[in-house]
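User: Teach me something about this protein's shape.
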Amino acid sequence: MLQAGKDFEYFNPLAEVEMLEANLPHWHQVGALYFVTFRLSDSIPQEKLHQWKNGFELWLARNPKPWDLNQIDEYQTHFARKIELWLDQGYGSNLLREHAYAKIVADCLLKFDQDRYKIDCHTVASNHVHALVLATQGNELPGILKGWKGVSARKINQLRRTTGNVWQKESYDHIVRNAEALERIRKYILNHKA
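Assistant: First, the predicted structure itself:
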């Protein structure tokens, strides 16, 4: 397991933070450890996604950026964790229940571990993937996720003899804040049922 202060730093509210945004907000801080989740394209029903998006847009109108730490916590509580709860309901094809597909994903995660990134821990669930990951010097999280998803999607489609989207376009990422958050996230990942 990675060690704070040696391998990575917790989120530092006083340090520079780059905020990128697509449908979800993404924070970037050099040397940070990230909790990432990416999911199969059919893992959450469209009506739930529309409900989430409408609620998020209303909240965002009342909470314009930049967000303070309380607003970030509120986002995590009301929006990010809601997605996690829905993922755990097992919606969709649950393609990753099949060992061959789950192995493809796990192999992609570990392919460049200790080179382009360092993985603290990970799990491949039936319809999504969780990992605690640190990008190494010269590498960035968006590129790492693009590689994992692109290569695994291509290999899964080849094995299934299909084409099309395997993964939802956007991934969720969260910078680990402190030792308590790290312990909670590790426990969640390591005890997660596939």
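Now, about its shape. The chain has a mean pLDDT of 88. Residues 52 and 79 are 7 Å apart (CA to CA). If you'd like, I can walk through any region in more detail.
User: That's plenty for now, thanks!
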